[in-house]
Amino acid sequence: MATPVEPTTICAPALTDAGQNDPFDYGSDGDPDGAVVAQAFAELDHLTLLAERAIAARQRAEEAFEKAKAAEKELLERRIPELLEKMRLSKCTTSSGIDVSVKREIRASLPGHDRADARAGAIRWLIEKGHGGVVKNRVQIDLDRGADDRADALVADLRARGFEPQAFKDVHAGTLSALVRELMGEGTVVPRENFSIFDQRVAKLVRK
Predict the structure, then answer these.
(1) CA angle 200–176–105, rounded 5-degree value
(2) What are the CA-CA distances from residue 205 to residues 54, 89, 200, 208 (Å)?
(3) Residues forming a β-bridge with 200
(4) Which neighbouring-strand residues pair with 142?
(5) Biggest alpha carbon distance in the chain?
(6) If DSSP codes are grouped into helix, strand and coil, which group holds residue 136?
(7) pTM, whole model, 2 decimals?
(8) Non-local CB neighbours of 179 within 8 Å, separated by 6+ positions
């Protein structure tokens, strides 16, 4: 019968700030007692095992969270709204005592800077349609919303003086979402190719 092999502990001395090996510090009473050293290594082993288990538990929890999040999205944004639509209902109280209704959610934002043409087109559309007041103009400093002519003139003036300012326009996502909801509610066609628009029927649940 094979003799059990004791686990081997391999450790390197800690490094000081100067990068030099620093002897283990078990106290100031001279050489450490063998039992103290053994206890320290046993505690280190225990703590590293606890940390390993904590990491694994955290990873499992994150995976479970992502699965639950995906399941929630599937149920609230697709399956329940689709079923209520088939039933020709906008709201209902289930036999389990849950009030369920379907609301239209619209959120909008400007395309990312990696889609410069679409972003510029969105801002141009807002200004041309008379909604330039939601556009923030920045030329190294924040300017008031709606100051498009002033911002353009400032950039031109700075360039004429030999400067190359970084100028860009932006719209707060919350402000843009509210505007797009209002416009779409009025029947205005918002060019989706220029905006990032989330337009979804989402189920809302309330337990009675």
Answers:
(1) 15
(2) 34, 15, 16, 10
(3) 105
(4) 138
(5) 90
(6) strand
(7) 0.55
(8) 108, 131, 134
**What is the identity of the amino acid at 119?**
R
Digit-coded pLDDT (tens) for 156-191? 887 787 766 666 778 888 888 888 888 888 888 888
Report in angstroms the alpha-carbon separations of 171 from 146, 165, 198, 201.
Answer: 11, 20, 16, 25
CA triple 118-120-122, angle to 5 deg? 70
C-alpha to C-alpha distance for 185 and 147, rounded to whole angstroms: 27
CA–CA gap between residue 32 and residue 167 (Å, rounded): 66
Cα–Cα distance for residue pair 168/139, rounded to 1 Å: 7
Collapsing DSSP to helix, strand or coil, 108 comes out as strand
**Integer angstrom CA distances of residue 75 from 31, 138, 203, 204:** 66, 42, 8, 11
| pLDDT at 158 (0 to 100) | 75
198 and 108 in contact (C-beta within 8 Å)? yes
Distance between CA 26 and CA 112 in Å, rounded?
A: 56
